Amino acid sequence: xxxxxxxxxxxxxxxxxxxxxxxxxxxxxxxxxxxxxxxxxxxxxxxxxxxxxxxxxxxxxxxxxxxxxxxxxxxxxxxxxxxxxxxxxxxxxxxxxxxxxxxxxxxxxxxxxxxxxxxxxxxxxxxxxxxxxxxxxxxxxxxxxxxxxxxxxxxxxxxxxxxxxxxxxxxxxxxxxxxx
Length: 180
Description:
The chain has one domain (2-176).
């Protein structure tokens, strides 16, 4: 079986309304005849956490699917997240299912909670909470493209990294940040 690192791969299995672009990270497995057998993404848990943090800093309001994604990444139930935000779980459910717009206050609370919880779990994460607090998310137009989040798999050779449990200690995910 041949193993080859893909230059670019679009991961669509994270539950977001758009793919996450992985650069030089996904591994493609081919049989002896060159037929695709499968694709694997290293450190999927670390990828999800890095994507959640990267998305929190993009100043475009969150879609319900993004709220659900962030909640799942931090590992809480919808009811628990709603209770921690001091809100009705039914309202939170409407957000996650895009039946009700999230709104500016709640959008900011979801972002702040996500980054704060992930930063606690990953002390090496240097999220600028002041910048996140000052962030003003704008509404996304219906015909506007979704944000593109490009992720690179960093290695220990690239400098300090964020280690995640169940991952190889020599690698971590890092976003390629672009202005929105």
